[in-house]
Design brief:
Blueprint lengths: L7 H34 L13 H25 L3 H31 L11 H32 L9 H26 L1
Helix pairs in contact: 1-4, 1-5, 2-3, 2-5, 3-4, 4-5
Length: 192
């Protein structure tokens, strides 16, 4: 299909999707760079090799996986014009995302309780990397939560009908992205 074909709205929708994918690819490269720096830094003599992932991060992992399912169900039900069920899944996704953020900070408090701070004399290069990578991810989850709030508002105003679900699609795609990034980061920290 020629990219110049279609109505003006189809072209605008395609451009919005392409911009989202451009952003996702850029963010993927950022996280890849940070995790590469983590691998290189492991050769430092002051690297902590016995660091355990906080238990709260395991809970966060479960929350983010379930939220990926609920955002998928939200999109699916909204496409079928099942508005009440779609709203239920959108709000559930938002709440799971908010809980994810809470448990990220619970995880930070577990790290601090174990004697490792972000900076200062009780910090280490290991935990500073972990704080940085996780906080960067949390910032993107906040962006996802804001996009979910916009979608919830628009869905409440019944703006997603007659096949016009682009806003939900974009929010769901971004949400799946932040979910995949956390799964990657968790597995990376667990195995590397």
């Amino acid at each position: 299909m020629d990219l110049t074909e279609g109505t003006e709205q189809i072209k605008i929708d395609r451009a919005k999707k392409n911009m989202l994918w451009f952003g996702i690819i850029s963010l993927t490269m950022s996280f890849a760079g940070l995790t590469s720096a983590y691998v290189v830094s492991k050769e430092r003599p002051d690297w902590i090799s016995t660091f355990d992932i906080p238990q709260a991060f395991y809970i966060s992992l479960a929350l983010i996986i379930v939220s990926s399912i609920t955002v998928h169900l939200a999109l699916k039900t909204i496409r079928k014009q099942q508005n009440s069920l779609g709203m239920f899944f959108l709000v559930t996704t938002f709440l799971l995302g908010a809980l994810f953020v809470v448990f990220q900070f619970v995880g930070f408090s577990e790290i601090i309780k174990n004697g490792y701070n972000f900076t200062g004399p009780t910090s280490s290069i290991t935990t500073s990397f972990i704080y940085l990578v996780v906080l960067l991810h949390v910032a993107h989850v906040f962006a996802g939560l804001i996009s979910l709030l916009v979608v919830i508002y628009n869905h409440f105003k019944l703006k997603y009908n007659n096949g016009n679900t682009l806003g939900v699609e974009l929010a769901a795609t971004f949400w799946h992205f932040v979910d995949i990034v956390w799964i990657y980061l968790f597995l990376f920290l667990y195995f590397v």
